[in-house]
Design a protein that fits this description.
By secondary structure, the chain is an alpha/beta fold. It has 4 domains: 220 residues, Rossmann fold; 124 residues, Rossmann fold, CATH 3.40.50.460; 134 residues, Rossmann fold, CATH 3.40.50; 106 residues, Phosphofructokinase domain (Rossmann fold, 3-Layer(aba) Sandwich), CATH 3.40.50.460. Helix content is 42%, strand content 16%. It binds adenosine-5'-triphosphate. The site of adenosine-5'-triphosphate has 17 residues, from helix 5.
């Protein structure tokens, strides 16, 4: 992208915002229902975007209860009221369940309290119950105002002036139980907590042979259980949407004992809180433990994670998701007309989209109805495409089909890692090997990238060889940046010797470059006239064709954790600016997203050229900031090619970090 493109983009964004004036408007923001990590990032985004477009933004403390009670529960927020909250779990404005709001009388009081402050825009962050309540409130609004006027609580002019209530919802729920969005705010952080526990359990359990039964949250939704089972390669998972088939007790014990026979020292069984059997009877963790102990005699422990999953700092993903949704929510409120139905800001693919709130709530309730009526296939389908595909992937990777049921393909597929190691590479190899075997292919592992391939470091790999690879960082196969250009002949010979019919390359930019070289050599080497497929894996996220590459989320989390620590270290000292240099491979993804998730003052990235005026503006911004209570600055910059702003008198010497 050249300079003209960048300034055109900046210009059109400014123009877009010019048409989006919030002057004279007031927005109320509240968090309701169970708390979730990332809610603070959503509140921060609503407050700052609201102020940015000239609106007044009010905190409504303690959810709907604060709206009903009014008084000091509804307070105008300013830019600094949301400083330093991105990294804080839970919600700083409090959340509650409120009986009064379920009654018209309660909602009448709430309407009176909003009108008093001129609030006719409401941003609700909560689960489906909270959003249902918001929708009812919006529908009743004009009737409530009429009644308030009849009671003499407000005058007719106010009824006219505040005739419509605009409502936008954001789903904050660790369960990911809301239809219409790929992810709800808090789910990713909860998954982090679960995986941290699994990792801890795995290290202790390696010393003993044990079976762990891990109960995770999800009274009605098995998302957390399913995805954590997928992420840690659990032996068995119990979900409310997909109860195990009749006779599961015996099948599970066979599976556990088969894994033990393969020298697996640890069995992990994951149970969703609301797990049921096909007759809708609960399956409890204790019941599973009892079964394993009596049938197999294994040393078995139950761990119930409970509220730990709601705790801790939000992940980078949740902070970014909530920040993007918060901005979109304010835009939606300002663009709403009296005819616009209440909407919910959702994530579809990697885009923030607006969907009709009522339809999403209805769909969410339909899943429960399907489960109640034991239509489990419908329940899985209604949960959405990603739930269904996660379930299918888990099943494919967890249980090997009996040999006589595997189709025969006569196809030899080789898997190779190329470039720098990225988290997730091993999980991808495991997945590819097991799916390939299930399809009847013979799978080959290539060691040490193209360099190793040229030297003949290739051998067949089996189902059990990749057991336990999911949670391991780096590249077990070994990976190198070397391109195949100089050893095409030797690589072609290896392809020929092992009759390789397809090549799966897992890696970053060098993987792309390498595959182009192989494809270009097809005229001279027919061995390369086979399907060549790339799975992008690079922490820099600098490759085309995918919004997010493997490893970039892990890289981002490391960066954001470091920024949090640096911010924390600065809390005792004043007037200090930290400059953090990130990796990037000519891509500003890590610096830019890291800045968004850590709440940095600026990010200097490769794609957006900047000059001395930008640096000066940043220094001036930091100078102003030092006059406030937040006497700390954070600047992220990509790579080493960029210059850091020079220290100015009055600042401490900037401290530099490379992450
Ligand atoms: P979670 O997923 O954490 O349970 P939730 O938003 O679904 O979150 P609920 O307890 O169902 O949690 O709802 C939170 C609050 O929203 C309730 O205490 C109540 O004040 C309000 N609310 C829920 N349903 C309705 C409704 N049908 N009418 C009015 N208000 C409602």
């Amino acid at each position: 992208m050249d300079d003209d493109d960048v300034s055109a983009r900046k210009g059109s964004f400014r123009k877009f915002l010019e048409h989006l004036s919030g002057a004279g408007k007031a927005i109320g923001v509240l968090t309701s229902g169970g708390d979730a990590q990332g809610m603070n990032a959503a509140v921060r985004a609503v407050v700052r975007m609201g102020i940015y477009v000239g609106a007044k933004v009010y905190f409504v403390y303690e959810g709907y209860q604060g709206m009903v009670d009014g008084g000091s529960n509804i307070v105008e927020a300013n830019w600094e009221s949301v400083s330093s909250i991105l990294q804080v779990g839970g919600t700083i404005i409090g959340s509650a369940r409120c009986k009064a709001f379920r009654t018209r009388e309660g909602r009448l009081k709430a309407a009176g309290n909003l009108v008093q402050r001129g609030i006719t825009n409401l941003c609700v962050i909560g689960g489906d119950g909270s959003l249902t309540g918001a929708n009812i409130f919006r529908k009743e609004w004009s009737g409530l105002l009429k009644e308030l006027a009849e009671n003499g609580d407000i005058d007719r002019e106010e009824v006219q002036k505040h005739a419509y209530l605009n409502v936008v919802g954001m789903v904050g729920s660790i369960d990911n139980d809301f239809c219409g969005t790929d992810m709800t705010i808090g789910t990713d952080s909860a998954l982090h907590r679960i995986i941290e526990v699994v990792d801890a359990i795995m290290t202790t359990a390696q010393s003993h042979q044990r079976t762990f039964v891990l109960e995770v949250m999800g009274r009605h939704c098995g998302y957390l259980a399913l995805v954590s089972a997928l992420a840690c390669g659990a032996d068995w998972v119990f979900l409310p949407e997909s109860p195990p088939e009749e006779g599961w007790q015996e099948n599970m014990c066979i599976k556990l004992s088969e894994n033990r026979a393969r020298k697996k020292r640890l069995n992990i069984i994951i149970v969703a809180e609301g797990a049921i059997d096909t007759q809708n009877k609960p399956i409890t963790s204790e019941q599973i433990k009892e079964l394993v102990v009596t049938q197999l005699g294994y040393d078995t422990r139950v761990t119930i994670l409970g509220h730990v999953q709601r705790g801790g700092t939000p992940s980078a993903f949740d902070r970014i998701l909530a920040s993007r949704m918060g901005v979109e929510a304010v835009v939606a409120l300002l663009q709403a007309t009296p005819e616009t139905p209440a909407c919910v800001v959702s994530l579809s693919g990697n885009q923030a989209v607006r969907l009709p709130l009522l339809e999403c709530v209805q769909m969410t309730q339909d899943v429960q109805k399907a489960m109640d009526e034991r239509r489990f296939k419908d329940a899985v389908r209604l949960r959405g495409r990603s739930f269904e595909s996660n379930l299918n992937t888990y099943k494919r990777l967890a249980i090997k089909m009996p040999d006589d049921q595997i189709p025969k393909s006569n196809c030899n597929v080789a898997v190779i890692n190329v470039g720098a190691p990225a988290a997730g590479m091993n999980a991808a190899v495991r997945s590819a090997v097991r799916v390939g075997i299930s399809e009847g292919h013979k799978m080959f592992a290539i060691y040490d990238g193209f360099e190793g391939f040229a030297k003949g470091q290739i051998k067949e790999i089996g189902w059990a060889d990749v057991g336990g690879w999911t949670g391991q960082g780096g590249s077990i196969l070994g990976t190198k940046r070397t391109l195949p250009g100089k050893s095409l002949e030797a690589i072609a010979e290896q392809m020929r010797t092992h009759s390789i019919n397809a090549l799966l390359i897992i890696g970053g930019f060098e993987a792309f470059e390498g595959s182009v070289l192989l494809a270009q050599a097809r005229d001279s080497h027919q061995e390369f006239c086979v399907p060549i497929c790339i799975v992008p894996a690079t922490i820099s996220n600098n490759v085309p064709g995918s919004d997010i590459s493997m490893g970039s989320d892990t890289g981002l989390n490391v960066l954001v954790e470091t920024c949090d620590r640096i911010k924390q270290s600065a809390s005792g000292t004043k007037r200090r600016v930290f400059i953090i240099e990130t990796m990037g491979g000519y891509c500003g993804y890590l610096a830019n997203m890291g800045a968004l998730a850590a709440g940095a003052d600026a990010a200097y990235i490769f794609e957006e050229p900047f000059d001395i005026r930008d640096l000066q503006a940043n220094v001036e911004h930091l100078t102003e900031k030092m006059k406030t209570t937040i006497q700390r600055g954070l600047v992220l910059r990509y790579g080493r090619r960029l210059l850091a702003p020079a220290p100015r008198p009055g600042f401490s010497e900037p401290s530099g970090f490379t992450v």
